[in-house]
Amino acid sequence: MPVNFDVSGKHVLITGGRGGIGSAIATAFVEAGAHVIATDLVPLAEKTREGIDDRTLDVRDADAVRVLAGTLGRLDVLVQCAGRAAPMEEYELATFEEIVGIHLTGSFSVATTLRPLLAASGGSVINVGSMYSYFGSPLVPAYGAAKAGIVQLTKTLALAWAAEGIRVNGIAPGWIRTALTAPLEALPGAAEAITSRIPGGQLSEPEELAGTALFLASPAARLINGVTIPVDGGYSAG
């Protein structure tokens, strides 16, 4: 029986699809022949991206999520990338609640709202966690708490929805060059401290995560369910 990595023709929704990681994953799915809808909180400022149906969505707005669901005739893959970090500001309660609301509550809301569509197709959910799902950081307490919650949510939904044919997995990126990590990299000595722990000695690009997402969405990953895969260049092994 040949191994099947084909995702062509699949209908894919990516939240946070205009951020660094989300955009790279969206482009990879398009290049692999999938139909892609990418949502983001920030309206698209530039011309429409080729092959991507760009829409605006606040994942914290349950009504807006339900409206979006009503426009989807089919859904095979949900990739949840929506999120942001606010170093040091997250010790303020309002900011803490905002960050957790985007990453964790928003992911739960979107996934549960789209569950019937995913069940109809035997679909796949891919939640984007972080190395801070496992490591503490004094700069981003809300981001770290939410990303740790993403790992547990991934396990829980995988168990709860397996009977419906829905697989739920996660990806835990390491240090990826995006607008989100730029403020941390800019701190004195931060870049050196980061790269000294990465076996390859360098940060990664968003495009380097896309292959894992494509694999998890493909038939080749049929037996993979409830796991979060570190994609960090070996950072977590150090």
Task: Provide the descriptors you would attach to this structure in a database record.
238 residues, Rossmann fold, globular, 38% helix, alpha/beta, 7-stranded parallel beta sheet, single chain
Annotated CATH homologous superfamily: NAD(P)-binding Rossmann-like Domain
| SSE succession | EHEEHEHEHEHHHE
Strand ordering within the main sheet: 3-2-1-4-5-6-7
Biggest sheet layout = 7 strands, parallel
Low-confidence stretches: none
Q: How far apart are the first and last residues' alpha carbons, in Å?
A: 37 Å
Number of domains: 1
Mean pLDDT: 92
CATH class: Alpha Beta
State the total count of DSSP E strands. Answer: 7
Structural class: alpha/beta
Overall shape: it is globular
Counting DSSP H or I runs of 4 or more residues, the number of helices is 7
What's the CATH architecture?
3-Layer(aba) Sandwich
Radius of gyration: 17 Å
**Considering DSSP H and I runs of 4 or more, what fraction of the residues is helical?**
25-40%
